[in-house]
Amino acid sequence: MVELVLPRGYRLVSLDSVDSTNEEAWRLARAGSAQATLVIWAKAQTVGRGRQGRHWVSKPGNLYCSFLIPARWPTRRAPEIGFVATNAVAETVTAFLPPGCRVLCKWPNDVLVNGGKVAGILLENVTGNAPKADQLILGIGINLTHFPDETRYPATCLLDEGADEADIGTVLQDLAGRVAAGLAAWERKGFGDVRRSWLSRAAGLGAPIEIKLPNETLRGVFRDLDSDGALVLATGESERRVTAGDVSLASPPPI
What we know:
SH3 type barrels, BirA Bifunctional Protein, domain 2, globular, 255 residues, 2 domains, alpha+beta
């Protein structure tokens, strides 16, 4: 295990096991607002969770972490950070994989390698719908050495895709650096570059997709990513903006 060197203004909270790194971030947030960005890292989670409260299998060997970030932006812009993080995860994953692996981003916040899900992101505002969030929690899980067998979408891990040197500490250090750089660039330049970078890796762009919403299922062509991160779905002669939902691709992304 390498000795972690985190970006300036970032502080590590290392745990052997925790219920969920996002839950620990919530507890730390309630205990008091910190000036530093905390990186909460656990070797295992007992009650790991993903989007919409789904269970996230969290045995030792994979990366489970959450960033507790002091917020400096309106709450309405917080979803953009999900795309900043997805780009950072995709870049980190690519850095540890052999050449030729296909790394794509699946809306809104999954990362795929050769068609299998290798990472997911859970973004939460500490202050909910307040005009300005005090802190933001960015939970990230990356499959390094194993993945669950029964999932809603095909899964994989870096080891199975040829990443022999994906030490957890090294991956976390790389990821933290990319998250910090991505956030700094987003704050300086806005969402435009983030959006373009994400679209360059977008799984299913220009192809038929299905989006499951709480009360309906939409089908159409994934046309674009809007200026605020909403998915633009072409349905016949009209278009619909979707801000949340589960996307299924019509066919596995090309390898």
